[in-house]
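Note to self: keep these together.
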Amino acid sequence: MRPDRDEFIDRYGGLYEHSPWVAEEAFESAEGMSVEQLANLFCACVNNATHERKLALICAHPDLAGRAAIAGHLTTESTEEQKSAGIDQCTSAEFDRFQTLNRQYKEKFGFPFVMAVRNSSRHEILAAFEARIDHDPEMEFDTAIGEIHKIARMRLESL
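Structure:
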């Protein structure tokens, strides 16, 4: 039996941070697909989107150890992912480093640093942050989209 469109979007609309359009676009083709096939379909929907829509998707992601996290305004998924990486246990020096890198990264690229942080440590995240800040804008845009796909896949697998 084919799932109802609204049920499908309720179930999968949060895989891509604040971007239910991915599930909306995938709905018509998704019937009977395995988890792997769904993940690939969602990736294709994003990869075929306009540059502007991809940029909005990247910008929908919160800063790591940022104001939204401090204020408790992250999605449930983002809160769990950042917590699993120990970001909530940063020393004051690490927290300051995250803040500095967040600011420098946004100034350079115009969007937040995105990384699939589940199964990483805050030390690994800071190292990736420092390495990726030297990327050129096109490379970093593509890297951010790739990381978003990893996040969505992990979220899908945990459903």
